Amino acid sequence: MNIIISEDYAAMSRRVANDVNKIIQEKPGCLVCIPSGDTPTGMYNNLAEDHKEGKLNIGQTYFVGLDEWGGLNKEDNGSCGYYLHKYFLDPLQVKKEKYFLFDGKAGNLQNECIKAEAFIDDKGGIELAILGLGMNGHLGINEPGVSPELRTHVIQLDELTKKVGQKYFDKTTLLSTGITIGLQLLLEAKTIFLLVSGKHKAGILSQVVNGEISNKVPASLLRNHDNCFVYVDKDAGGKTEI
After folding, report:
1. Residues paired with residue 116 on neighbouring β-strands, in sequence order
2. Smaller CB count within 10 Å for the chain: N or C?
3. Residue 92's CB: how many other CB atoms inside 10 A?
4. Smallest Cα–Cα separation from 123: which of 26, 32, 226?
């Protein structure tokens, strides 16, 4: 792991955006895996600003959404798809044929997994996987104990994920399952960016970086990847020995 510490969230978000921009410009036509959540918002805002100013050209780039809540899709406020449209796909005017998002309302979620894998395979695999870190160490919705050999899959949500996930909704929402790109596919990405921000993430980040490498803390498996970069602000990095 290559750990990059920034002074604060704003500086971290700018640094990540610059590095994402660099990869996109160097490798036109590549596939980027994009996450939802609080942490990547600053990065997306910077990328949208770069695009508006003509500093970022994503015309040839493809994108795949990392995950989605079971029973929800881009039409639902609080869903991963809704977030990605609001902060990234719409501001950067990404054409529909250039991205794939899971539809958590689809009648057959296993078929959504098949479609996601076909999209990824058709683009030659994931060039860059951008990830956030869950409070329980999950990546996407690859929950503690998940098999590292899964590519895309439907999974039962961890109790902590159900609790933390409520922050994205205006009212209490039943969350029970998720659909996600699996660890096998993520670890096959040529480059991985893990974004971690805030004092509340300091404890789990320390486990990821310094603890046992195990699917009990899925993000710890990133230490087996040859080209993984961890972007943190000082609040998140406070308990991490580097």
Report:
1. none
2. C
3. 18
4. 32
How, if at all, do strands 67-69 and 152-156 pair?
Answer: unpaired
Q: What is the largest CA-CA distance in the chain?
A: 46
Backbone angles phi, psi at 46, to 5 degrees: -65, -40
Q: pLDDT-based confidence at 219, cuts 50/70/90? A: very high
Residues known to be catalytic: 67, 136, 138, 143
Phi and psi dihedrals of 241, rounded to 5? -85, 120
Selection from 24, 22, 31 nearest residue 127 by Cα: 31
d(CA 67, CA 218): 15
SS3 label, residue 156: strand
How many other C-beta atoms can be found within 10 angstroms of the C-beta atom of residue 215?
Answer: 17
DSSP 66-111: -EEETT--TTSTTSHHHHHIIIIITTTT--GGGEE---TT-S-HHH
Coil vs helix vs strand at 46: helix
| Among candidate residues 121, 128, 120, the one with its CA nearest the CA of residue 22 | 128
Instruction: Quick: pLDDT tens for 112-122.
Output: 999 999 999 99
- Compute the C-alpha angle 169/141/206, nearest 5°: 100
What whole-number distance in Å separates Cα of residue 91 and Cα of residue 29? Answer: 19
pLDDT tens digits, one per residue of 154-208: 999 999 999 999 999 999 999 999 999 999 999 999 999 999 999 999 999 999 9
Q: How many residues are recorded in the chain?
A: 242
